[in-house]
Amino acid sequence: MATTRVRGAEVRVVDDLVREVLGPSGSRNKAAEGGAGAVKELLDALRGATGEARRLESHFLARRDKLVQELRRLGSTRAAKEKDGKGEEQTRAMAKHLESIEGRVERVSNLSSHAGDRLVRLERRRDFARESKVLLGYLSNFSETEGCAAGCANRGEETLDRLDEFEAATLAIKLRALGEKLLVRTGDLDVPPAASPVPGRRRTELATIVERIQVYCDKLENRLILGFDKFSRHKNFARMRECSRCLLLFQGGARLTSHYLASRPLFLETNPKTLEEEASAAASSDSGGPKATKQLMDLLGRWYKHGLESVKKERQVINEVFPNADRITNELVRRLFEQNVQSYLAAVLAPSRAAATAARRTAEDIRGFLRVAAAAYEKTRELAAGLQTIGCGGIDVEARMGELFSEHLDSYPEVEFELLEALYASLRAKHQGKVLGCEMVVECFEVAKESIARCQLLSLEQDRADSVQKMFSSDSSRYASPHSLVDVVYQYMIGGLQSAMDSSEKACSSLSSFSLMGDQDAEALHKKVVGTSLGEVFAVVGTLSKCVSNLEQGLREDVLDAISPEALRDKCEDYLVSFIGLLEGTVAQALSMSVSNCLQVLARVLKARQKRADFSPQDDDFGMGAMGKATPACVVAVGCIRAVHKLCLDELGEPNAAPFMTELGYSIMPALRNHFGSFAYNPQGALRLKRDLAEYAEAFKSVGAPGVSRQFDDLSEQANLLVVMPESIPDLVEEDLKISPSEVLFWMKLRADHKTARLGDGKQTLEAYFSTKGAAR
């Protein structure tokens, strides 16, 4: 309400002043006197009231301070007068009196503040009235067109031209604003148009005056721009600054900024046709290749360097000339990107982009274009960083990059996926039918490394994480994506491993017992048994292990560390761990199958070379020292075990050799036990069996499988059941061996005399005795 009244008063003052200055007929009233006399008297009276209020406020504040001191004194002596009720009553009375004084002081303070606010408003009204009267006087000059100096259309122009340029510009803009407000009764006057309508004739006169003021503003602005250009040619920075200071009053200097930047050599010398010719010449030597990319980037770098140096020089001039130097500099940089840099990029990318979008494009065409785009992106980012270094800090680099490259990379990253799929397919075709090797994995890694780095550079922020993850690995246990590194490598490795397993199984099946029995060269036989069943698979597993190790190291050092944000990096690491774990499981299955093939071949070797006479010899079957030697079949088997160990060391490495030999020993133990169970033993043959078991125990001990060696030692102890006299067997079983009756029966049935041999009483056979023992348990 109060604000509305004040605004209304301001309008009334302006109307009165307009009538005084222009007169009832619209012409200037020379005899008009000041209309602020009444306002002055009111202000003087209000100042006197304000002074009195402040004096009262000081008086009451002094009384309040005295009362506070008295209250503190009474409080300090209250303990001494606690028994006297009068002290407490006086204290309460004093506190109540203090509250009353504080209330009066607060009311006086509010009155003083209110009076001060009114004084400020009245002073504003007085200043407004004074300024309005002066401005209306200038307005009236624009209505007089007779007797003007040469070159001036009215008295208003003649009056303003006598002032300096800055004062003239400031006053002209104020006059234009006042005239427009008087016409519409809005703006700072804050009165609706219908509240105080302007009479028709006066409105027409005001409209004419406003139009004349606008014409003068345009003439003055043109004159200042011409002066700015003149001083610019003479490098007169001081006068240029004066002109720019004045021109900033006209719409913030927008016309000056546009005029100045358009005249800069940096923008005048950019010719798109010339740029395209230079770029075509640089790319023609090696279309899409590294050499062409380097030459194009050298050309782009030279252009960018020239642009950066030009901006640096222009910034020095801008700082000297323009009061709003930062805004002009930012506008200069904006135009540099929109005009020059955009033209540079279009010229550099055009040749490779044309090849990449052609109907018969190849993977190399697409890769050449993407390489040029990524290199250009890096160069442009370096330019932006250089601009920030010299003080152009108003650059949003990421936003600017997105705007510049969106036109050229509108279908990214689909283009990148298309490229990856084509390159991976080409690599698979190149290595089709070859033994698994690290070359394919290295080539796939290099392709993915380049694409992932490029994707992090060129893709939009909202697409980046999903695109990088798809290039690294598909979120699927089938690993069937044609453009994911992990999927392609997994399919290649599994294919190579499966091929080796199929080849090994086929080779093992083709070995005949005759070929295994007829080979007299021990080393050749070991190579045939072990090489056929394990050699190819072990070679592939060894290569696969090296490939995975190198791939993991490369991914962690060159790819994962560069991936951001951290959540995406952790996700890719999880994919890598899952991939390695799945490969390890597949390799374990392949080795298990190879061990099975090896045992089958070894069983055929033992069957072909083991003779019944080895374990049931007659006295004349042994030559000199034959009892102390292992059987020929054992010699072959032990040789194969040592050959397997050597193969493990060569292909799998020492850390993996001992675990594998242990698993092999646990697998070979039941096979050998079944083999021994197909023969009958007399005491001499049993001793030779113990010799064979000792050989097996020693062999596994030497290859790092002591657990298997101890089992063969235990088996040798049990073989004593084939050596001792029948009557000693019960004591041997119960006191030394302590094995189950089923185990005892197994050994009893291997004795050549198990059907005829009886215990000491001569009544029970060994088989019947231990069968009864087993039934009792």
Oligomer state of the chains in this structure: single chain
Morphology call? elongated
Rg computed from alpha carbons, rounded to a whole number of angstroms: 53 Å
Q: Could you list the spans in which at least 5 consecutive residues all have pLDDT below 50?
A: 1-7, 24-36, 186-198
- Give helix and strand order, one letter per element, not per position: HHHHHHHHHHHHHHHHHHHHHHHHHHHH
Q: Into which percentage range does the β-strand content fall? A: under 5%
DSSP helix fraction: over 70%
Estimate the mean pLDDT confidence: 81
Task: Calculate the terminal CA-CA distance, rounded to whole Å.
Answer: 114 Å
Counting helices, strands and paired strands, the structural category is mainly alpha
Number of domains: 4
**Main sheet: strands, sense, barrel:** none
- Total count of strands: 0
Distinct helical segment count: 28
Protein name: Exocyst complex component Sec10
Domain Exocyst complex component Sec10-like alpha-helical bundle: 167-430, 435-759
GO biological process, one term: exocytosis
InterPro entries: Sec10-like, Sec10_HB
Structure description:
Residues 167-430, 435-759 form the Exocyst complex component Sec10-like alpha-helical bundle domain. This is Exocyst complex component Sec10. One of its GO terms (cellular component) is exocyst. InterPro entries: Sec10-like, Sec10_HB. It is a single chain. By secondary structure, the chain is mainly α. It folds into 4 domains: 2-141; 155-247, no CATH class; 264-410, no CATH class; 415-601. The chain is built from 28 helices and no strands. It has helices at 2-22, 37-76, 85-141, 155-161, 165-184, 200-233, 237-247, 254-262, 265-268, 272-283, 290-321, 325-356, 363-389, 397-406, 414-430, 438-458, 461-472, 485-510, 513-518, 522-559, 566-609, 632-651, 654-676, 683-702, 706-718, 729-737, 741-748, 766-776. It is elongated and about 155 Å long. The N and C termini lie far apart (114 Å). 29% of the residues are buried.
